[in-house]
Every structure is written in C-alpha cells, then in structure tokens.
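Re: beginner question about structure tokens

> Can someone show what the tokenized structure looks like for a real chain? I only ever see the sequence side.

Sure, here's an example I had lying around. Input first:
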Amino acid sequence: MIYSQQSSHLINNIQGVIKFLGTGSEPRPLPDEELAKIFGGPDAAPAPEAAPVEQIPFTVGQVVEVVEGPFNEFSGTVQEIYSDKGKVKVEVSLFGRPTSLELDYTQLKGY
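And the corresponding structure tokens:
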C-alpha cells in the first residue's frame, strides 16, 4: 500500500486501530524478522533446545516401594523406565494379582 493522507485516514478510522507503528508522524515498516514471528515464517523463532532428560535413579528389575499416592507402602518391581516423561512402570501385587502402575519416579523409594 502506498502511504498517503487518504490511506492514513482510512486505516486510522478502522475500529480498534489506535495508530501506526513508529515514533514520528510517518509510519515505519516492520522488519522482516518481526513479520516472520507474526506470520510463523522460517525465521520465526530460534530452534528449541532439547529438553533435559530426567535422570531416574532406578533400574529395570529393581525392587521399589511406593511412598506417595493411593498405593502408598506397596512394594513392586520396576518393569520399564520412561526418562522422557519422568515416569516408571512398576508391577505390584494387588489382591494377589500382578498390577502395573505408571508412577512418577519421585513417588518411589529404592531398596
């Protein structure tokens, strides 16, 4: 769009428009980086850093005790470790049957 007094008046009279971007009387264009952020272009944002993987202090086959939650004081065996989620799959005996639970590793205590 070519900036003129008529186009300025037209834009400024749109409901919700306060004024043009800039410090002087003339509007200034947005830099390409800002436009990329707004419209999600390839320069939109720096590449996200890889999330740190939780160091879970248990190993598969280790006997652990649940210290928090509804299965408090139950003992079981670690079946799987999900480091990316910070979870541990534990098999406990519930009414004489093996039952798998997926718990946060902070809810467990090793022997």
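Each token stands for a local structural state, so reading them left to right follows the chain. The helical segments are 5-12, 32-39.
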